[in-house]
Give the backbone structure.
Amino acid sequence: MGNVILDMAVSLDGFIATRDGGDGGIMNWYFSPAPPSAKVIDELIDTIGSLVMGKRTYDQGAEANGFADDPYAADRFVLTYHPMGDVRQGEKVFRFVNDGIESALEKARAAAGDKDVCIGGGADVAQQYLRAGLVDVIQLHIVPVILGEGIRLFDHLGGQPIPLEITRVVESVGVTHVRYRVVR
């Protein structure tokens, strides 16, 4: 069984999106990656067996046709409050899960096999998995911009420290990739 990885791009001040949900430029490095970033992206593509995201993240990606060129061949699980059938976009299938984060993770782990499960979208989803102690690795793509306000990744964690160990730092053009192991 692989790890559960929280993988998110963040501004230097910890925001994953602007107040209106835009990315504030924090994803610019991803679309034309310099060689060090390309290696990090390739590693993710190779090691991720399934992705978990929130409904808002799914809606934003679907609205922008953002899944059309997405290179991940992984199964996708979308957390939602409302029962929905699976949605196919090209070769990608999005499975909607409305019975909680543990159920979504169980389904994602089964789909991933020996590969990793990536928690990839929405601060609220990330916070739920962190509060529940279900994340093994946090990989942040830290972009040198201060957004000043927006949607903060590490709010609402319940006040208990989450000890981390840095396991890798990769400097690249316009982004620094930092990987942490959650210390249990």
About this structure: The CA atoms of residues 13 and 146 lie 6 Å apart. The chain has a mean pLDDT of 92. The chain is about 25% helix and 35% strand.
